[in-house]
């Protein structure tokens, strides 16, 4: 963000609330860009006794992850999660429980993760290019964001998952 969305003045950096933020220098306007994190829902989708991992069309071939999506205005996190599972996988789901809330600082998001029990026939939505069903004991996790939610859920099932090796790390 470079310009004030209220008065179109060029934004400046100033301390507000103990943190440097973008602010409008026009004192009559007073706009502050708080840059609050976006709420995102994430699902460990359990399908036919396995975990569904999906690849976004924009990701490298080796990268798979959980089903995620932005929470829409006016919907509960549970409704948002079931909507995303339907949109991205074509599956009907039932919330199995809240796994937890996780930070994803790199993308300025707060992840609200659920276990979703799903049924039906997988039909990929336009955002996904591939999916796979992985037995619980063969799941590997990643050290950030949704990887931590998958780890925590697997542990409730008595599985201690290994950490995957990430290219370039």
UniProtKB/TrEMBL annotation:
GO terms for cellular component: cytosol. Residues 34-156 form the Nudix hydrolase domain. GO terms for biological process: NAD+ catabolic process; NADP+ catabolic process. It comes from the Bacteria. One of its GO terms (molecular function) is NADH pyrophosphatase activity. It catalyses: a 5'-end NAD(+)-phospho-ribonucleoside in mRNA + H2O = a 5'-end phospho-adenosine-phospho-ribonucleoside in mRNA + beta-nicotinamide D-ribonucleotide + 2 H(+). PROSITE patterns: NUDIX (PS51462), NUDIX_BOX (PS00893). Belongs to the Nudix hydrolase family. NudC subfamily. This is ADP-ribose pyrophosphatase. It comes from Abyssibacter profundi.
């Amino acid at each position: 963000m470079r310009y004030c969305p209220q008065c179109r003045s060029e934004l400046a950096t100033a301390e507000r609330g103990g943190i440097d933020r973008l602010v409008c220098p026009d004192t009559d306007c007073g706009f502050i860009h708080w840059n609050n994190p976006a709420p995102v829902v994430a699902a460990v989708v359990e399908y036919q006794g396995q975990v569904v991992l999906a690849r976004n069309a924009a990701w490298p071939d080796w990268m798979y992850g959980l089903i995620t999506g932005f929470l829409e205005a006016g919907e509960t996190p549970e409704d948002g999660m079931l909507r995303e599972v339907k949109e991205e996988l074509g599956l009907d789901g039932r919330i199995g429980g809240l796994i937890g809330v996780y930070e994803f600082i790199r993308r300025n998001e707060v992840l609200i993760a659920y276990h979703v029990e799903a049924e039906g026939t997988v039909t990929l939505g336009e955002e996904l290019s591939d999916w796979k069903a992985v037995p619980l004991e063969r799941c590997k996790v990643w050290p950030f964001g949704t990887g931590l939610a998958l780890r925590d859920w697997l542990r409730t099932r008595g599985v201690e998952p290994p950490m995957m090796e990430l290219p370039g790390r």
